[in-house]
Write a structure and sequence with these properties.
Layout (H helix, E strand, L loop, with lengths): L4 H6 L7 E4 L3 E5 L7 E7 L14 H17 L7 E4 L15 E5 L10
Antiparallel strand pairs: 1-2, 2-3, 3-5, 4-5
The structure holds guanosine-5'-monophosphate and zinc ion.
């Protein structure tokens, strides 16, 4: 996906503050944080949104949650809590069409879901 901003971040064509990386997954700080901790976790494989997941992605999505767990501990938000948000499609407010999981924490979050 040549015009995908997150694919460019994966290829290091756009700089980002990376907090975790392996062969399949990248996590980096959101450029416009809505809370003291706001990290995006993405698969390196381009998937447009949650709607386009397939059976073969089940293991990858499971691994993403393992990475989220690890990051939450490293960022020391595991005990007080945090929120994981996946915006999907137009009504869901998805701006970047590359599947991503927001980790939001470090303050008491209101009822507003995200951003
Ligand atoms: P969405 O609204 O699609 O769920 O969330 C997209 C998120 O990506 C937003 O929170 C936005 O701040 C973040 N974002 C957009 N462009 C960039 C970028 O170039 N770098 C980083 N680090 N975050 C970005
Ligand atoms: Zn992409």
């Amino acid at each position: 996906m040549d015009d995908c901003i997150f694919c460019k971040i994966i290829k290091k064509e756009i700089p980002s503050s990376i907090v975790y990386e392996d062969e399949e997954i990248l996590a980096f700080r959101d450029i416009n944080p809505v809370a003291p901790v706001h990290i995006l976790v993405i698969p390196k494989k381009h998937i447009d949104s949650l709607v386009y997941l397939s059976k073969e992605d089940e293991k990858l999505i499971g691994r993403i949650y393992t990475v989220i767990n690890k990051i939450a501990k490293e960022e020391q938000i595991d005990e007080k809590g945090f929120r994981v948000v996946v915006n999907c499609g137009e009504d869901g407010g998805q701006e970047v069409k590359h599947l991503h999981f927001h980790i939001i924490g470090g303050k008491k979050l209101g009822i507003k879901i995200c951003g």
